[in-house]
Amino acid sequence: MIKGNVVALVTPMHEDGAVDYGALRRLVDWHVEQGTDAIVSVGTTGESATLDEKEHCEVIARTLEYAAGRIPVIAGTGANATSEAIRLTRCAAEAGVDACLLVTPYYNKPTQEGLYLHHKAVAEAVDIPQILYNVPGRTACDMLPETAIRLSAIDNIVGIKEATGELARIGTIRQGTGPDFAIYSGDDATGCEAMLQGADGVISVTSNVVPAQMTALCRAALAGDREQAEAIDGRLAPLHRNLFLESNPIPVKWALAEMGLIERGIRLPLTWLSEACHEPLREAMRQAGAL
Length: 291
Known about the structure:
The protein is of the alpha/beta class. The protein has 12 helices and 8 strands.
């Protein structure tokens, strides 16, 4: 089981919107050096919704190439059409990823039975460990804990990224699934407490900016050291908050450009961070030690 600090890695782009593979290599190397526990490639933060299928598979393959076995790679392969999710998951599995992360089908607003059948179909079509991803604030589709528990009975559905920020769900899912089913917080603001209450890690936006500190936070929380975990989390709290001043990944891409790690590249309909947000985010970065 992958535990700890899992970065939801941005997909760096040139100013014309083309994927910047040189910057991607440098980011992967940096995360290995900083002690990040695993990478999610082409998730929400990786602008999966703006990449076509060929680009999606290429970014995953390049991330694996650059990681070179030094760090686990989880591929974001969810889609709002089950057939597309199967194609993307198969592509990632053939590339050699450690697991796939599948967001609930956005826009369609399926029923709980539809969610069950969707994930069951992908799991049966592609024999690779699969992690459910529930983020109703972006998908308009909420996978309820009882559906996640039901899906956990399928052998290669091995975990869930729960991004509602509702801490009570951690205990409910854990009680219904047992210790071998991985539970990841998808909400940096509540991730520390989620781990202290039994989650196995955080799939983190903040880790793009301060990976070593997020790794230290996760290790303290997973060890049950509340005092140390909360002390680190307190320093990072303004960053957790201000990385969502506008829709993710707008702020985090601006932050990485400010650090000189990527160019100012993002794809429409996303836009570069508004001027009014620059100083609040810059100050949060200073408080976190990123600048």
